[in-house]
Amino acid sequence: MVDEFVNEFGILFLIAIQCIIFTWIYDVDSLIPVINENSRFKVGSLWKVVIKYVLPCFLIVMWLIGVYNLLIDLESFEAIVYIIIMVLVLLFSGILTKISSDK
């Protein structure tokens, strides 16, 4: 159940968010020369379009479909476990954020 929760709720959504942050908040154009300099595979404008538009949309759609399918087949015990996991993750994240902001 934990594996299904992590796969459906966590990984796809976080990868989509990372793509959005990487391409929309940070200047991806300034990173392309650094990537090309330190990689065997060269990237260009097509890579930028895929990372900026296609991949986040595709991942969010996959995430929404997975969450929908997960919620449709959900039993009461699984719902309780998922709620407990979600609360623990949010509490742990809050504690880590509080610790890092205090330093």
How would you sum up this structure, described in words?
The model has no long low-confidence stretch (mean pLDDT about 85). The protein has two domains: about 1-70; about 75-103. The protein is flat, with a radius of gyration of 18 Å. The chain is an all-alpha fold and about 100 residues long. It has helices spanning about 1-25, 30-35, 45-70, 75-100.
- Please give the count of helices: 4
Q: How much beta, percentage-wise? A: under 5%
The 3D shape can be described as: flat
Head-to-tail CA distance between termini: 36 Å
Low-confidence stretches: none
- Supply the helix-strand structural class: mainly alpha
* Helix share bin: over 70%
Number of domains: 2
Q: Write down the Rg.
A: 18 Å
Tally of strands: 0
**Mean model confidence by pLDDT:** 83
For the biggest sheet, the summary is: none
- N-to-C order of helices and strands: HHHH
In short:
The protein has 103 residues and is mainly alpha-helical. 86% of the residues lie in helices and 0% in strands.
